[in-house]
């Protein structure tokens, strides 16, 4: 094998150049999706900050637990048990630990 064939397969764990090429392309797509997800999480954090600020300014509490339960249920219903963990992480990012 030449260095050009082994390098992509070594990087990807694939056993053929064709598989390595497919994996490399798929990883690039995953990286792009991750960038979009991070951007959406940052946007969610900003919107959540506005909500918390207004809720507190109006005399309310920083956290609305019934709303958080709705968010947890949405993620659980869509993604199963791991969805609950993901939603908890998002909630913590958006409002901090309670």
TrEMBL record:
It is an enzyme of class 5 (isomerase). Residues 17-98 form the Chorismate mutase domain. GO terms for molecular function: chorismate mutase activity. Keywords: Isomerase. Its EC number is 5.4.99.5. This is Chorismate mutase. It comes from Streptomyces pimonensis.
């Amino acid at each position: 094998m030449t260095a050009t064939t082994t390098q992509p397969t070594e990087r990807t764990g694939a056993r053929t150049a064709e598989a390595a090429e497919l994996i490399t392309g798929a990883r690039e797509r995953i990286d792009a999706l991750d960038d979009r997800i991070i951007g959406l999480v940052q946007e969610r954090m900003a919107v959540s900050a506005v909500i918390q600020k207004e809720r507190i300014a109006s005399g309310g509490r920083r956290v609305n637990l019934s709303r958080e339960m709705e968010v947890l249920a949405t993620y659980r219903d869509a993604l199963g048990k791991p969805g609950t963990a993901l939603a908890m992480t998002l909630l913590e990012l958006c409002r901090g630990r309670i």
